[in-house]
Amino acid sequence: MADSAVKIKKSRHRFNKNIYGYIFTAPFIIGFLLFSLYPLLYTFYLSITDMTMMKKSYEIVGLDNFTKLFSDKFFIQALKNTWKIWLLNFIPQIGIAMLLAVWFTSQRLKIKLVGFWRTIYYLPNLLMPATIAILFFNLFSLYGPVNQFTVRAGILNEAIDFFRSNGWTQSILIFVQWWMWFGATLIILMAGMTSISATYYEAAMVDGANAWQMFRKITLPLLKPVLVYTLVTSLVGGMQMFDIPYMLTDGRGSPNGSIMTLNVLMYMKFSSNKGHIGAAASVGVMIFIITCTASLLVFKVLQERRDANPKKVIKRTVREGKHELCS
Amino acid sequence: MKKTIALVLACLMLVGLITGCTKTTPAQSSEVESNTNSSTEEKNFSGTLKLWSFTDEVKTMVLAFEEQYPDVKVEYTMIPMTNGEFQTKLKSALQTGEVPDVVSLEAAFVREYIESDFLADVSDLLPLAKELGTYQFTIDIATYEGQTKAFSYQATPGAMFYRRSLAKEYFGTDDPAAIQELVSDMTKFEAAAKTIKEKSNGNTYMLCSTGDFANLFFANRQTPWVVDDKLVIDPKIDQLFETAKSFRQNGYEAQATQWQEGWFAGMNDSLVDAKGNPKKVFSYLLPTWGLPYVLMPNGAPKVVKAENTGKDSTVGIDTTGDWACINGPMPYQWGGTWIGAMKDSKNLELAKEFIKFSTLNADTLKKWALGVYTNEYLKKINPSVGDTLAQGAGDFVSSQKVVEEIVSEFDNAATSKFLAGQNSYKGFAAAAPTISLKLIQASDDAIQRSLNDPLSNYAAGKASKQEAIQQFKDAVKNALPDIIVE
């Protein structure tokens, strides 16, 4: 009897506490449901309609939008472009950010004015993407300063029409993306590196490890969570790349759709003469699926290793122990 | 005690969220009230009118309207349309219902709105238009299924503007009639381009960009782009491809892009190629508005502010008086602004009054064309307009009656000085009644934009004709999901 009374009291106590938890999380939950989940589900719904902005009525057309999308050359091209542009700017981005982060946090090099350099590298990220796009467009236009300078200096024989060449336009876009984002990556990596205890490095130095060994055996493994974070956020951002490719040329991925990313394609469908929201939503759904799959894949691959490693170590030690016993 | 505080805090957070979401409601309802107030007094025309436009041009009209109706306040919103921002904003607004009362619609997308059911029917203003002799094509473009939904204050026949000094140098005469004879069709135009190139050793281009003559070919098609939901490619497009290729390959054009620096630089002789050689441009294919809005402002030297030194330098020369205006190789029409009222407007009567005032009022049109709306004039109405807003003389208006009345006034106007005494208004007045816009369709703009890249590829020799046409078809398919492309 007394026992059950205690139980009731306890449970009521827990219930009371739970209610505060719910109340405190409610603002986020409500915000999430209203502004994230509902639009997401609505996008899925829109993608199976032929809704346009110029008409009030619309019909459900099933998977028509998707069938059209996959028979559309531009969609496949946009998909390829998005991955290509992201990969080609992410690899140098993380590489250079890593190199600079190692140098800036190195106890041996003791580089001066780290804060100053870090700020300089981060600055492009503070500028409006629209400004940057216009700046680069004017720099590289046929009658622009880059052509004037290089031709007069004898580097080029003839002016290059950068924005009528697929390769050049893509390269400029990749460079801009790299230039804008490596500073941000640098700051995150530096934060990750400075949080690694100096004692590991001291111990390694005592053991006579060189810089590469310390990086490989201490920095990299301990930086893994930060790297995963950078990878996933950059992937999500890369799949949604929009402002620079949109503003750099005519907003249609010109020339020849070479810088048309998935988001630019989506916006094009949305801003076409009638405003085909249904067709645009189907691109949105595809972006969502691609981003989700890719992010989950990244998590899964890296998580498996985390789980597998200790087991392997144990197995190995057990096996080795057995060997010892046998011999 | 602690629990109570926590509960209160949590509730506050929730309340904050909810009020955050609904804060606009009271403001909205008061707005509705003020609007209903004004609509009860609509005959006196007071209240607030919301107007969206894509340039500052209509703002001048708005100020003149406010002068005439002192009790009316117009909220003017300018949204650029360079990459379609205006259209996007307007379309998004259609869905939310927070629409303006009056909208400006550009030729590129006006048809889309005329064919939709978002614009109010203003056909009851047609008798007024008849009285003013409003050019029929400006009414045709704004009429769908018997309903006229917008009117325009301008008519925009196209023309060709050329440099007199260069004409003298290469053709031995700068007489407009003689030059017109030399370029009266596309074959002759190309031959003239060849002469210019040869005589100038490639230092003078016939045109600044191949984009300049695209409109001419579009305007002279026999079939519209879309027939029975299917894409049709007119033979004129084939000609456009060939002409563009010839101009690019033979170096008859400066490879600039319309509306970009190099294109403007050709107007005041400040075009310099990458090696530092000065280049000249013989002609520009521009419509009526191209003269006062594009050619005249850019035909003067540009001030370049030099940082640090504090000294300003100028580039280019003053080309005033060195231009002439002719019909060019083919008749065409380009651009124009229409003004319509939204169906959902809470102030429809006032909106209609604005349309009437700005497009169907002989007095306004006269003042508009003759450059009465100077900066000082507008500043008197509203001192906060800034120092640049003004309506220069020379825009070609939509009323034939007004045009005939004022055409002689342009014998000594600034536009005529710019053209060495030639009255361009006379030429436009002759060309305007012949323009037909029967081929225009809602999807034109999207289709013609899709042509840019394939055309440029073919002209540059990067794609064969077949490849370019295929690229064009793919682009149309992508841009317009509801058109059948074979």
Shape of chain A: flat
- What series of H and E elements makes up the topology of chain A? HHHHHHHHHHHH
Mind telling me the CATH superfamily name of the largest domain in chain A? MetI-like
| Structural class estimated from helices and strands of chain B | alpha+beta
* Count of the domains of chain A: 2
What's the count of strands of chain B? 16
Describe the sheet with the most strands of chain A. Answer: none
Class of the domain at 43-156 and 335-410 in chain B in CATH? Alpha Beta
Q: Which outline of chain B best applies?
A: globular
Computed CA radius of gyration of chain B, to the nearest angstrom: 26 Å
Average pLDDT of chain B works out at 87
Explain what the structure shows.
The complex is a heterodimer of chains A (327) and B (486). Chain A has helices at residues 2-46, 64-71, 73-105, 114-126, 129-139, 145-152, 166-194, 198-206, 211-239, 243-248, 262-270, 277-326. Chain A is mainly alpha-helical. Chain A has 2 domains: 1-46; 64-326, MetI-like (MetI-like fold). The longest helix of chain A has 50 residues, at 277-326. Chain A is flat, with a radius of gyration of 27 Å. Helices cover 46% and strands 13% of the residues of chain B. Chain B contains 23 helices and 16 strands. Chain B has a 5-stranded mixed β-sheet. Chain B has a 3-stranded antiparallel β-sheet with strand order 12-7-15. In chain B, strands 4-5 form a two-stranded antiparallel sheet.
